[in-house]
Design brief:
This protein is mainly β. It has 2 helices and 10 strands. The radius of gyration is 19 Å and the shape is elongated.
């Protein structure tokens, strides 16, 4: 994982939020959301799907802005559609902001959440070539930088409950040099995953 890039995006996201909150001159609303969700992603790099579950905690300093942290576990081997899986499970962490107005019981929003995806170790047979196959690098256990960008909608059936659906593009930064798609890649590179999640929670 590119720690410098991750730290920069995290710091920049929170600075934007703090500047916005300070400029409004309003008292903090101190609203919080906590919930659980099911997440699904489709990897364009490996043409395979992944399903997991997790939790989310959000702080709403003002109605327009949300600051949130989300953790998900993808427990199955990956890719499950192939005979040789190179990851026994994945752990995903996303930390960022949502922005969008609330209209009565509905809030559409845009999201930008940097974070990480950890591929848990899996023992597989790998050929001894350089650069090594990307799947072999991930099978050794790697954490890669992730950036989730997209949007969604929040529904508020009651004053204390929230239902949330969101979708977007999860960019993953894979390590290089590596061998992929029949060719050698010398530099690290980004790949795009379609990601969807749905869940519910409480507000307090």
């Amino acid at each position: 994982m590119d720690l410098r890039a991750l730290n920069f995006v995290l710091v920049a996201s929170f600075v934007v939020v703090l500047v916005f909150v300070s400029s409004t001159g309003r008292a903090f609303a101190q609203r919080f959301d906590a919930g659980a969700q099911i997440s699904a992603a489709h990897s364009s790099e490996f043409d395979a799907g992944d399903v997991g579950f997790g939790g989310r905690f959000a702080w709403r300093p003002v109605d327009l802005i949300g600051v949130e942290a989300e953790m998900n576990v993808y427990p199955r081997t990956f890719p499950s559609s192939r005979s040789v899986a190179f990851s026994s499970g994945r752990i995903e962490g996303l930390f960022g902001v949502t922005a969008g107005p609330r209209f009565a019981r509905v809030r559409p929003f845009a999201k930008l959440r940097p974070g990480f995806l950890t591929f848990r170790r899996q023992t597989i047979a790998c050929i001894l070539i350089f650069p090594p196959p990307l799947s072999c690098q991930l099978a050794a256990g790697r954490t890669v930088f992730a950036l989730d960008a997209g949007g969604g909608i929040e529904l508020f059936p009651t004053g204390r409950t929230v239902i949330r659906i969101d979708a977007g593009d999860r960019l993953l930064k894979y390590p290089g040099p590596s061998f992929r798609d029949g060719r050698a890649t010398q530099e690290s590179f980004f790949s795009h995953d379609f990601r969807f999640s749905a869940g519910a929670g409480v507000r307090f």
